[in-house]
Request: fold
Amino acid sequence: MSTKDVFHNVVRLALEKDGWVITDDPLYLKASPKIGMYIDLGAQKLLAAERNDQKIAIEIKSFLGLSAINEFHLALGQFLNYRLALEKLEPERMLYLAVPEDAYSEFFTDEFIQQAAEAYHLNLIVFNPVQETIVLWKN
Reply:
């Protein structure tokens, strides 16, 4: 199992404040007999109007390293592999990449990164690490 991101607990708390119930910390997926994966969080929320649960999986990335593009390459690769495993094992669960608000405003608003996010159907949760809140859901 990999090390938890520095913002792991912040994102967990922000999701709980937003009405989500954390069901898995981490969410384990057995993609094949030899490949197991851990996504940072699994959560669900009862949608009263629809009377059913919405399920999500969240991979958390801090983007605090020296190269944001290198971190993006790694995060995108993980995201695509996790999404493939989820489509097979838990197709009702939507995958999100959680990033801090400053990384979103400084990096994810770049034209190329926006094109990549759209091309790869990258769902984002943008959080404020100081207030421990979700500030944006972007599908």
Summary: The first helix runs from residue 8 to 17. The mean pLDDT is 94. Residues 8-138 form a domain with the Trna Endonuclease; Chain: A, domain 1 fold (CATH 3.40.1350.10). The helical segments are 8-17, 68-89, 101-108, 111-119.
